[in-house]
Design goal:
alpha/beta; 4-stranded parallel beta sheet; 5 helices; about 15% strand
Length: about 160
Protein backbone atom coordinates (compact mmCIF):
# COMPACT_ATOMS: atom_id res chain seq x y z
CA UNK A 1 0.00 0.00 0.00
CA UNK A 2 1.13 3.55 -0.67
CA UNK A 3 0.52 6.00 2.17
CA UNK A 4 0.87 9.71 1.54
CA UNK A 5 1.94 12.55 3.82
CA UNK A 6 1.20 16.20 3.04
CA UNK A 7 2.26 19.20 5.11
CA UNK A 8 2.14 22.97 4.88
CA UNK A 9 3.72 25.35 7.37
CA UNK A 10 0.89 27.79 8.04
CA UNK A 11 -2.86 27.73 8.28
CA UNK A 12 -3.08 30.22 5.39
CA UNK A 13 -1.60 27.68 2.99
CA UNK A 14 -3.56 24.94 1.23
CA UNK A 15 -2.92 21.20 1.27
CA UNK A 16 -5.04 20.61 -1.85
CA UNK A 17 -2.25 20.52 -4.46
CA UNK A 18 -0.19 18.06 -2.42
CA UNK A 19 -3.20 15.85 -1.72
CA UNK A 20 -4.20 15.84 -5.41
CA UNK A 21 -0.67 14.93 -6.52
CA UNK A 22 -0.45 12.14 -3.96
CA UNK A 23 -3.82 10.70 -4.96
CA UNK A 24 -2.86 10.87 -8.66
CA UNK A 25 0.26 8.84 -7.76
CA UNK A 26 -1.90 6.04 -6.35
CA UNK A 27 -1.90 6.88 -2.67
CA UNK A 28 -4.69 5.07 -0.84
CA UNK A 29 -4.61 7.13 2.35
CA UNK A 30 -3.26 10.65 2.87
CA UNK A 31 -2.23 12.00 6.27
CA UNK A 32 -2.11 15.80 6.20
CA UNK A 33 -1.38 18.61 8.63
CA UNK A 34 -0.61 22.30 8.91
CA UNK A 35 2.49 22.65 11.05
CA UNK A 36 6.03 23.98 10.65
CA UNK A 37 8.62 21.54 9.33
CA UNK A 38 10.89 22.51 12.19
CA UNK A 39 8.48 20.88 14.66
CA UNK A 40 9.57 17.27 15.07
CA UNK A 41 6.47 16.09 16.95
CA UNK A 42 4.00 16.01 14.06
CA UNK A 43 0.86 14.01 14.86
CA UNK A 44 -0.22 13.25 11.26
CA UNK A 45 3.28 12.09 10.34
CA UNK A 46 3.34 9.82 13.40
CA UNK A 47 -0.04 8.36 12.36
CA UNK A 48 1.21 7.85 8.78
CA UNK A 49 4.29 5.99 10.01
CA UNK A 50 2.20 3.93 12.44
CA UNK A 51 -0.08 2.92 9.54
CA UNK A 52 2.85 1.55 7.51
CA UNK A 53 3.27 -2.18 7.22
CA UNK A 54 6.00 -4.30 5.63
CA UNK A 55 6.49 -3.46 1.93
CA UNK A 56 4.34 -0.28 2.15
CA UNK A 57 5.69 3.03 0.86
CA UNK A 58 5.46 6.46 2.45
CA UNK A 59 5.12 9.01 -0.35
CA UNK A 60 5.53 12.80 -0.18
CA UNK A 61 5.38 15.43 -2.92
CA UNK A 62 8.76 16.96 -2.00
CA UNK A 63 11.48 16.05 0.47
CA UNK A 64 11.10 19.30 2.45
CA UNK A 65 7.49 18.31 3.26
CA UNK A 66 8.92 15.47 5.35
CA UNK A 67 11.87 17.09 7.15
CA UNK A 68 13.92 20.28 7.35
CA UNK A 69 17.01 18.88 9.04
CA UNK A 70 19.21 15.91 8.28
CA UNK A 71 18.73 14.57 11.80
CA UNK A 72 14.92 14.78 11.56
CA UNK A 73 15.00 13.22 8.09
CA UNK A 74 17.19 10.33 9.19
CA UNK A 75 15.11 9.74 12.33
CA UNK A 76 11.91 9.70 10.27
CA UNK A 77 13.39 7.37 7.67
CA UNK A 78 14.67 5.07 10.43
CA UNK A 79 11.11 4.86 11.79
CA UNK A 80 9.82 4.05 8.28
CA UNK A 81 12.52 1.40 7.82
CA UNK A 82 11.75 -0.15 11.23
CA UNK A 83 8.20 -0.73 9.97
CA UNK A 84 9.66 -2.58 6.97
CA UNK A 85 8.47 0.14 4.60
CA UNK A 86 10.13 2.32 1.99
CA UNK A 87 10.07 6.03 1.20
CA UNK A 88 9.66 7.99 -2.05
CA UNK A 89 9.31 11.63 -3.08
CA UNK A 90 7.36 12.63 -6.21
CA UNK A 91 9.55 15.64 -6.99
CA UNK A 92 12.71 13.58 -6.52
CA UNK A 93 12.17 10.21 -8.28
CA UNK A 94 15.73 9.11 -7.52
CA UNK A 95 14.81 9.04 -3.82
CA UNK A 96 13.77 5.48 -3.17
CA UNK A 97 14.97 4.01 0.12
CA UNK A 98 14.66 0.47 -1.18
CA UNK A 99 18.00 0.93 -2.98
CA UNK A 100 21.46 1.85 -1.67
CA UNK A 101 21.78 4.53 -4.37
CA UNK A 102 18.49 6.11 -3.29
CA UNK A 103 19.58 6.13 0.36
CA UNK A 104 22.84 7.90 -0.57
CA UNK A 105 21.06 10.55 -2.65
CA UNK A 106 18.52 11.06 0.14
CA UNK A 107 21.25 11.69 2.72
CA UNK A 108 22.91 14.27 0.46
CA UNK A 109 19.62 16.06 -0.29
CA UNK A 110 18.73 16.05 3.40
CA UNK A 111 22.03 17.77 4.16
CA UNK A 112 21.32 20.34 1.44
CA UNK A 113 17.85 21.02 2.86
CA UNK A 114 19.38 21.59 6.28
CA UNK A 115 22.01 23.90 4.77
CA UNK A 116 19.31 25.89 2.98
CA UNK A 117 17.36 26.26 6.23
CA UNK A 118 20.46 27.50 8.07
CA UNK A 119 21.12 30.02 5.30
CA UNK A 120 17.54 31.32 5.58
CA UNK A 121 17.98 31.71 9.34
CA UNK A 122 21.30 33.53 8.86
CA UNK A 123 19.79 35.93 6.30
CA UNK A 124 16.81 36.57 8.57
CA UNK A 125 19.07 37.28 11.55
CA UNK A 126 21.21 39.60 9.41
CA UNK A 127 18.11 41.48 8.22
CA UNK A 128 16.86 41.78 11.79
CA UNK A 129 20.24 43.18 12.91
CA UNK A 130 20.28 45.72 10.07
CA UNK A 131 16.75 46.81 10.98
CA UNK A 132 17.73 47.21 14.65
CA UNK A 133 20.76 49.27 13.59
CA UNK A 134 18.34 51.56 11.72
CA UNK A 135 16.32 51.96 14.92
CA UNK A 136 13.43 49.64 14.10
CA UNK A 137 11.81 48.45 17.33
CA UNK A 138 10.73 44.81 17.53
CA UNK A 139 8.05 43.34 19.72
CA UNK A 140 4.84 44.65 21.12
CA UNK A 141 4.36 48.38 21.60
CA UNK A 142 4.50 49.49 25.26
CA UNK A 143 1.09 49.86 26.88
CA UNK A 144 2.24 52.88 28.86
CA UNK A 145 3.59 56.11 27.46
CA UNK A 146 7.02 57.37 28.54
CA UNK A 147 5.29 59.83 30.90
CA UNK A 148 3.15 57.05 32.45
CA UNK A 149 6.20 54.82 32.99
CA UNK A 150 8.12 57.68 34.59
CA UNK A 151 5.12 58.50 36.83
CA UNK A 152 4.71 54.85 37.87
CA UNK A 153 8.40 54.54 38.75
CA UNK A 154 8.31 57.78 40.75
CA UNK A 155 5.25 56.61 42.70
CA UNK A 156 6.88 53.25 43.37
CA UNK A 157 10.04 55.03 44.60
CA UNK A 158 7.84 57.04 46.98
CA UNK A 159 6.59 53.81 48.57
CA UNK A 160 3.26 53.28 46.80
CA UNK A 161 2.25 49.67 46.23
CA UNK A 162 2.08 48.09 42.79
CA UNK A 163 -1.70 48.00 42.99
Amino acid sequence: MIIGYARVSTHGQSLESQQSALQAAGVEKVFAEKISGTVTDRKALARAIAALQASDVLLVTRLDRLARSTRDLLNTLAAVTERGAGFRSLADPMLDTTSAHGRLILAVLGALAEFERSMILARTADGRKRAMDRGVQFGRKPKLSAFQMQEAMARRANGESLK
